[in-house]
Design goal:
Shape: elongated
Order of helices and strands: EEEEEEEEEEE
Helix content: under 10%
Distance between the termini: 40 Å
Structural class: mainly beta
Number of strands: 11
Length: 118
């Protein structure tokens, strides 16, 4: 079982920045994708960014260059720098891990609130 611990959320004004981090409570064995999803009020959960084990990054269309992800395979950690935040970015952000080998186990963090408001 992999336990994902998130940190860094909070309240920020429009145009501001936040940095989210997520660390696995224990080492993750094998190849895995790691990333972030979010769920805003009244919305479905959507992809923010996913980083494959080979370093390939895929961002959600709404990011438009505002966010930058970094992944540390040694520490099983992922960080998300979010700049130029908008009220629409208000959501609970979830850390996510998917193991590449069958049965492709998936793990989610508990979620961390990001609120963008003046």
């Amino acid at each position: 079982q992999v336990h994902l611990v998130e940190s860094g959320g909070g309240l920020v004004q429009p145009g501001g920045s936040l940095r989210l981090s997520c660390t696995a409570s224990r080492g993750i064995f094998g190849y895995y994708d790691m990333g972030w999803y979010r769920q805003g009020p009244g919305r479905e959960r959507e992809l923010v960014v996913i980083v494959s084990d080979d370093g390939t990054k895929r961002y959600g269309d709404f990011v438009k260059g505002r966010f930058a992800v970094s992944r540390d395979n040694v520490k099983d950690k992922i960080s998300l720098q979010m700049d130029s935040l908008k009220p629409d970015d208000t959501a609970v952000y979830f850390c996510y891990v998917r193991i590449m080998l069958p049965p492709h186990d998936e793990y989610w963090g508990q979620g961390i609130q990001v609120t963008v408001s003046s």
